[in-house]
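Working notes for the structural subgroup meeting. M.R. asked for a predicted model of this chain before we commit to crystallization trials. I am recording the input and output together here so anyone reviewing the notebook later can reproduce the run.

Input as submitted:
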Amino acid sequence: MQQILHAVFLACSVFFFFSSSNLLAAPPRTVVCPSDQELLQFLESEQKPSASLLPPSVSIAEGFTPGTTEKAGAIENVQGAVLVIHQGGTSAYRLKQNLPIFNGDTLITAPTSRVTMRLTDDSQLTLTANSKLVIDQAVYQSETGHRDTKLQLLLGRLRTIVSKVTGPSSFRIKTPNVVAGVRGTDFLLAVGPSLHSPSDLMTVLLTGGGGSRVELIGDTGNSVLVGPLSIASAALDCGVCPSLQIGNSTLNMLHNLAPELDFKGFWQVQLFLDDGKKLKADPTYQLKELINKPDENDKIVSPHAP
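Returned structure, recorded in token form:
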């Protein structure tokens, strides 16, 4: 009997808690969505970590020892000091051009440093200064064209150009407060102290032209599909703010932050944007044409829900 009464008491307590949320629950957190100019300034700022990005249990070793997991890609270019820690390792190695990277690797860039890498599926990534990236897995099966890539951007800025594959594709990047499900082409993610609450982290997404589309899924469960030439953000426990379409400012920002990944598509789009006659005739012409213009990578299958 005591057990039955105890169960009834718990059930009533739970009911009272949910039915009296206006009395017991904490007030909802106010969501303040930054303006496009605030977000662009955030992207331009190089994040300065409050502590070393290198774990205290890890020491820098001479030379390079390959990882024991499956190869994820290779380094194309290094500027400054860039370290890699293999999965489960206690040593960090300095990365150089043409060295391999592996599933489970953690990459750390020092101030004024950057690294460009190419994954096995031919996607390209540039990690800028004061950044930390984990390659959870980058699996590509050339026979079937199947891709399954999972990355974690813990701090800093990462520009990515996702390649086209012929099979099913899942390409996701997780940050402290969002999962970015990539649907095509060229974009940049940045993680740093929140503009309105510096003790928290926020994530900002910038998309390029053509078929660039990324779905942002926030830690509150809401999601926003961000189309080409747009910017969006998410703060801790606040979900994803609506995306803002800002036009060719996105292309200039992508070029300024990671020019290594500029490709002929960028210059084609830039020339299109500089077509003064069409722009004067209809100020919205550039956006309509770019949004409606298909991109070969737009056929990438939407990623699975996290």
